[in-house]
Amino acid sequence: MKKTMKLMVSVLLLTITILGQPMQNYADETSSDDLEEAFKGVWVATVLNIDYPKAGTTDVDALKSEAIEILDRAKANGLNAVILQVRPTGDAFYKSTLFPWSKYLTGTQGTAPENNFDPLAFWIEEAHKRNLELHAWVNPFRVTKKTKNEPSHDYNGLSSTNPARLHPEWTVKYNDGNIYYDPGIPAARELIVDGVAEIITNYDVDGIHFDDYFYPGTDFDDTKTFEKYGTEFSNIGDFRRHNVDLLVESVHRMIKLLKPEVDFGISPFGIWANKKDNALGSDTRGLQSYYAHYADTKGWVEKAMIDYIAPQIYWHIGYDIADYEILSKWWNEVCRGSSVKLYIGHGAYRTGNSDPKSAWYGVDEIRRQLDLNQTLDQVKGSIFYNNTAFVNQPRLGVLLKDYYATDHSSTKGSTNTQSNTQSNALNMTPITITPVAPVTNTLILSRPSEDVKTTASNYYLSGASNAALPLFLNDSEIKNRSFNGYFGVYVPLKDGVNTFVLEQGNKSYTRTITKISASGSISPMSTYQISDSTTFPREKEMRVAGEKVTLTCKAPIGAEVTVSFNGQSYPMVPKVAQSPDGKVYATSYNYEYTFPELGSGQHEQDLGVPVYTMKFGKYYDEAYAPENLILISENSIYTCEVPEAYIDLFKSPASGNGVAANLVKEMTEQVTGMTGKYVRLSSGLWASKSAVTISKFTEPQRVNLTKIDYQPTEFYDRLVIETSGGGAGIASYDGEVVSLKLSSILNENVLTFNNSLVQTSVVDGKTSIQIKAPHLKGYYLEKTNRGFNLILLKYRAKNESATANTPLSGYTILLDPGHGGSDAGARGLLGDDFTEKSLNLNTAILLKAKLESLGAVVKMTRESDTDMSLKERLAFSLKVKPDLFLSIHADSVEDTRDLTDVFGFSVFYKDPVAKPLADSLLNQILFDLGRKDRGVNVKNFYVTRGTWAPSALIETGFVCNPMEYEWLMDSKSQSLLVESLARGIVNYFDRTAQ
């Protein structure tokens, strides 16, 4: 059945070729990044003419033809991105006012191509024609890359305009014979930042890309630099890593200021550190970027200093020094919980080994690595080094084309098993999408619904039409429409105003889409002063000794700015040191402050309100921060209490990355920090200030653990925690063990009792409890008068009244139709009619009827078009405590993407208790319907965070894709979707029933 469906979908795709662009995503906290197509890139190296051009030449036709050949090959091989090396050795493959033309481009550094040809502009234009992203690859610090026949440290071989020749004091002669910029010299870093700014200002690149070359080695001759600039550091290694961090952070901030849509990625050496040298490192024995290149690549991810990371894991699976599997899994964990996307760098150049015993014999090692990637939930794509590998090994291109075109991947995060369990109640027939009566006899332009402004180079126009009449866009007929007249057209945009006229019969729509510069909204300052609204802190800032905060304000570029408090004054560093055009703009000024030690016996010290002063020529200004800085002890005198049923906790003082844990009503915990709208608790997690009640005492409040008791019952086990009063616990589950951390409860001794499932330990006087629970239906905490209970829910045996026709007898299922009321969700192709909220409700009603016919008790969070908040939905789930919670959605993505390949079915869950459910739903849909596999994904959606029941969210399809929207609107296809979901639920309970 699955092969039949894939064939039918393929035929339909050939029949209905729709150029589309998705619209804005309105799903509950659903990010389009989670659903976007995998990144599939190839590195094109220009240094030493490795990939392009074959030899330096000023011949424009040769440069163009070679570029087109590479781009055509990338597209044919199923890739969607090219990473072009545009600054290989301190010279440029584009028109630059900072760097000379590259010798690898024309043969002589400083010599331009003929006829004013700009290679980078050509590459970008041709890449975008092929729907390929173009990332500009910069080698930041390398000035030369000598061959064995070239002289060492050859400054005379550089162009007379090369910055390294004009400023040799910025450089170091390394023992490999090459010249490098010294990362410790501020002027050298500023040059690199300015160089990146020049690229993104003048070119429509999709990304800026650094490779793995930072410091070339540990014996870099920068002793004088360290003596001059490294006085705050106890060793030169930390100084060097700090310099690289400064560059990375500066480039990232500058990109987000000028063109936030441009991605900044780095492809470091595959090993951050070996475990034998650093406990946090990988189980490897190779060169370590942290110590050899002074690149804290792990730290960049944790601090979100880049948009993506692509570690070069150029070794095979099973390699004892640096195993691909070990490293890919290590990086997967590093990126978990971070906004930084993980792409894997593959050593494609190693393929084609002639020894049959070699792991790199043929191209199968790449296939094995791609298969392994699909089991890692954080891996969002791959990049292959390099283009020449595809020339030398044509089978590599065939492999990738087949792999990506046939969606060969296994389900991310799932067991990838396909159940064909059938019952009389769930017999299925092959799905067909047949033409039905036209949904509308009139023209509707759904997206965009009004005139828009954008920085994008393309936009997606979509809607519905009368399928029997021709449809025209700017007098050109749109021939590619669905059976029912749904259409989508991906249109290019020129700078300025673009007018589009859509016409059918006597009805028409006119839309203007204005393409603007990303930096066009930045205006010069009219008055020269400190911006009062930018002074830090805006809210009370409370930290412990040794912690760092960045004091910041905005003032004119070129000003002298200081910040003063607690009797001290500190100079501030500007984010942008020089105006790009001589006009006066505002920039951020920063100073990183480290909180000092408290005096003996002190619990708190008020450091005062920071006062910011500015001198700018004849202008002077002074501004006060709204709040003060407070130093507190780790054993804090501040305590917070939870006033509501439960509150959310976060890993950082921001909610964007989702909830990490919850606290239950009346729990109390010490406060160890405060910033912005958030307060940090003794667990290290953060809560919203408004969600807790904060009290201050004269002495720290000590809460002792007085009792632990484990009480097993037939349907659940209860862990009883009693304290001397107050306290808090945080529970988590990894699929095998439930951990309860009592971070705010002190205990000098381990409380033990006779139960082999439970282990207790005390670290720094605080108790941690682990309970073995490999098969768990759910868990949650409840507050008691003497403490709290941890409830562990067991899977029940199948109800004795269950029959072949009523296999769900005895189970309670809660369905949650996403959105509703004033929240329409994603906008479909019929405009305000049949938006996502209507589709979700329709699917839920059909599924409710089906599940009830199978014997289940089914409840719904909403049964009509009514408003219901996410908090209300989760509270309803907590009240019902069902055997299964399923949130139903359809999806969409932003209007500036081409929607051609954006379709399919996906499942999301947060807690491991829901993984078996998520796997069962996806596998059943794939088996029955042959839908495109968008995977089982771990995501912290609000409605799926309930741990008291397996909770999952499904995305049934994309309402912004004309073909997909027609499928979602078709009653036959939706009936089969519901049948398949019901079967997946039945199979889930069959497998989990005791």
Automatic annotation (TrEMBL):
Name of one Pfam family that matches: Amidase_3
Keywords associated with the record: Signal
Family matches, as InterPro entries: Divisome_Glycosyl_Hydrolase, GH, GHL10, MurNAc-LAA_cat
Signal peptide (from-to): 1-27
Domain of life: Bacteria
PANTHER family: GLYCOSYL HYDROLASE DIGH
Designated name of the protein: Family 10 glycosylhydrolase
Organism: Fusibacter ferrireducens
Taxonomic lineage of the native organism: Bacteria, Bacillati, Bacillota, Clostridia, Eubacteriales
